[in-house]
Amino acid sequence: MKSQPQLTLKQYRILRQKGAEPPFSGKLLYNKEKGVYCCARCGRKLFSSDMKFDSGTGWPSFYDVNKGAIELKDDSSLGMKRTEVVRQNCGGHLGHRFNDGPPPTGKRYCINSASLVFAQKT
Predict the structure, then answer these.
(1) CA 76/CA 81 separation, integer angstroms
(2) Res 80: pLDDT
(3) CA pseudo-torsion sign 21, 23, 26, 32
(4) Which residues are catalytic, by number?
(5) Which of 5, 7, 75, 84 is the most exposed place for a label (fewest CB within 10 A)?
(6) How far is it, in rounded angstroms, from Cα 113 to Cα 20?
(7) Whole-model pTM above 0.90?
(8) pLDDT category of residue 100 using cuts at 50, 70 and 90
(9) Is the pLDDT of residue 62 over 50?
(10) Which of 61, 67, 53, 69 is nearest to 98 (CA)?
(11) Maximum Cα–Cα distance for the chain, whole Å?
């Protein structure tokens, strides 16, 4: 059985305790390289770099997700109605989905950098 990587305190707070990193602070926000964004907890593929766009919100944003990679859950924390994005395999909190993204989906997956690892295409 493959062991899961050791999480940093920041990754643990986000992935396991449903925290969030401050806007414009994530290391992958401005990443423009080609590759794949994977879950920092289980390593499974989530997003292609081709799905990433600049939403201006301060978090990496994607207009689509790899099929079967996530679960969506109602989230009414902080007095807001949102849709939480959770990794299907390991249950890690990734961020939230909103209905204000670009075509073709009209969705914005607003994801914490600390919940992701990036694998550059070679």
Answers:
(1) 5
(2) 86
(3) positive
(4) 110
(5) 5
(6) 9
(7) yes
(8) very high
(9) yes
(10) 61
(11) 44
